[in-house]
Amino acid sequence: MRDVFFALLLWVAVAVAVAGAGARPAASAVKGAYWPTWLTSTFPPSSIDTSYFTHLYYAFLQPDPATFRLTVTESDDIWMYKFNSDLHHCRNPVRTVLSMGGGGSNGTLFALIAASPSNRCDFIESTIATARKYGFDGIDLDWEYPADQKEMDDLGLLLDEWRVAIEKEARATGRPRLLLTAAVYYSVVNPMDGITRTFPAGSISRNLDWINAMCFDYRGGWNTTVTGAHAALYDPGSDISTSKGIASWVDAGVPREKIVMGLPLFGHTWKLKDPRVNGIGAPAVSVGPGDEGTMSFAEIVDFNKENGASVVYDKATVSTYSYVGASWIGYDGPKSVRKKIKFARAQSLRGYFFWAVAGDKEWKISRQGNTPYQRT
């Protein structure tokens, strides 16, 4: 009887070990934000209240156009060490991710990297070495955007090889594997500039830990004729909305647990044609207040208070806007962000991220997600 008991015990132990080896751990939720490097003098990493986040992105490094390896300036050398030291050793430590690219980066350079096996190899090796040297937990690519389907397909090859290299490095060093993520268009199909191209959903699903879908900038100063909700969750008048974009990624086969929804900490502004007509879609004549028609959430709060602006929550689009005189601002306030985070939970998404962390006002927006994020 004793032998039978120990045999059974051994069988259970082996079964548990085998099951554990093959099981995928539950995906932890993401509450992310990007920290742009131009904030070094005004909003250093130590200014971030990390209790509202799980992941923070250092944005951005760029590849060298001759070597295809990451360029690390003297300033980056200082601030990447500080970024990781401050955010790993604070009261509420977070995971850190090194992001490369960004909206102002050279898309042609990324296309050259992705198109060549040797260029991909040099770039990938450099990203891993740099991330390890400075103590990052992961790597993020923000290529805005592959210009045609060939470049999209090359992106898929880059991600395939990147994941292999990351796995290989982790096995060789015995260190935890680096995260691999990417900031992408809000929709799997990008029709920008009249050229329709589709992201490589298969490669993304195989290789990335998650995507950061940039669910904002649907409307802005590039169209000054009407006001708009630039991060509308729903849009009764068009297919350009966060809900439609997220659905396109899911329909393309990207698992919900690999989709992180973008939230803006900024707004776009317009000058109304007639101050008496001031809703979403109202006629406009130009951009409004702010830097070329853009204001951070913190600036919007101050502007609204100083000018006695009317603030409106729009249920149809799940967005916020304010107006005073001819000035009109479309953005996300606490209520619309709270509703969007509820949407992300209901959709079983991996989480959400903000662009960019310094745009908040006394953490009024960031704290909207500071409840247990459990995917349903």
TrEMBL record:
Instruction: Write out the entry's keywords from A to Z.
Output: Glycoprotein, Glycosidase, Hydrolase, Signal
Q: Does the keyword Glycoprotein apply?
A: yes
Q: Where is the GH18 domain?
A: 29-376
Which GO cellular component term is one of those annotated? extracellular region
* Keyword Zinc belongs to the record: no
GO terms for biological process?
carbohydrate metabolic process; chitin catabolic process
Q: Where is the signal peptide?
A: 1-23
Q: Which residues form a coiled coil?
A: none
Q: Which PROSITE patterns match?
A: GH18_1, GH18_2
Named from the GO MF annotations, one term is:
chitinase activity
| Pfam families to which the protein is assigned, alphabetical | Glyco_hydro_18
| Membership in a protein family | Belongs to the glycosyl hydrolase 18 family. Chitinase class V subfamily.
Protein name per the record: GH18 domain-containing protein
